[in-house]
Amino acid sequence: MRTLILFLSLLLPLSALALPKESRVPGGVALLPLKGINTAHLPSTWYRSNRVMVIPSINTEFADQAKWVAVVGIPLSAKITEQQHVRSEGTSFYFSIQDKAYEAQYLTVPNKRHVDPNPEDVARWQRERTKMNKAFVAWSEPSQPVTTFGLPTQGPFSSAFGLKRFFNEQPRKPHSGLDIAAPQGTPITAPAAGIVVDTGEYFFNGNTVIIDHGFGLTTLYCHMSRIDVTEGDQLKPGDIIGAVGKTGRVTGAHLHWSVSLNNTRVDPTLFLSE
């Protein structure tokens, strides 16, 4: 009965549902019509080891191709030489990706421990990573799926998603979010409805909030000067969650905003409604 209610609730409001922009590149999003999957229930769909968001295709550009559409996050580590494999209800779907050249960014970090952490720092970071990973794999099924976002704060984009980063000339993992420059204390708001699933003061990320928007879509907010929400809070679009700051590994005040889809960090700009 719960699955039927969920399915009906998904169908009713979808005239206003917009899909994220498709970009089949590492760090992008693939919109994959699940041809031949005609179940009345939400089909269980997986990419690599993570469950994938699936929405009815009604009132989308895929309505004449399939009943369901998978919204798949592609990791930055994905190889263009490999066919990407999605599994749904015992059926396999394949798609290819194209290469994308991300630029390099060189930053000078004043706090040397944020570049060369000591053993205690590393142990702390590993504990924090485990806690955050649990939030990223959270799965919930709200009555209305979220597929687009508004901006969580106002300011210029200071560091794009996917940049190849060097801290004090040492290579690090690519930039997994979008940096928005703003004065300390600038409000940060929820870009869509969701539930707060994690908060904390972390070694690299500083004051941090993670919001679960449902169906494997979560957002991460880092370096905040303050946190105004607690775990379990249910948020509406525009609710204040905290303020811009410069806590953790930073070179100045800004918001680091990450979007995670099927436990994969993807380009936030693909989800912007404007």
Write down the secondary-structure element order.
HEEEEEEEEHEEEEEEEEEEEE
Strand coverage percent? 35-45%
CATH class of the largest domain: Mainly Beta
Low-confidence stretches at least 5 residues in length (pLDDT < 50)?
1-15
Q: Would you tell me which CATH topology of the largest domain applies?
A: Glucose Permease (Domain IIA)
Mean pLDDT across every amino acid position: 89
CATH superfamily of the largest domain: Glucose Permease (Domain IIA)
Shape: globular
Second CATH tier, the architecture of the largest domain = Distorted Sandwich
Number of domains: 2
Q: So how many helices?
A: 2
Largest sheet: 10 strands, antiparallel
* DSSP strand tally: 20
Rg from Cα: 19 Å
Distance between the termini: 37 Å
Describe the protein:
This protein is mainly β and 274 residues long. It folds into two domains: 2-95, Immunoglobulin-like (Sandwich); 104-271, Glucose Permease (Domain IIA) (Distorted Sandwich). 10% of the residues lie in helices and 35% in strands. The protein has two helices and 20 strands. The strands form four sheets. Strands 9, 12, 13, 14, 15, 16, 17, 18, 19 and 20 form a ten-stranded antiparallel β-sheet that branches. Strand 6 and strand 7 (91-95) form a beta hairpin. The longest helix is centred in the middle third of the chain and has 18 residues, at 119-136. The model is unreliable at 1-15 (pLDDT under 50).
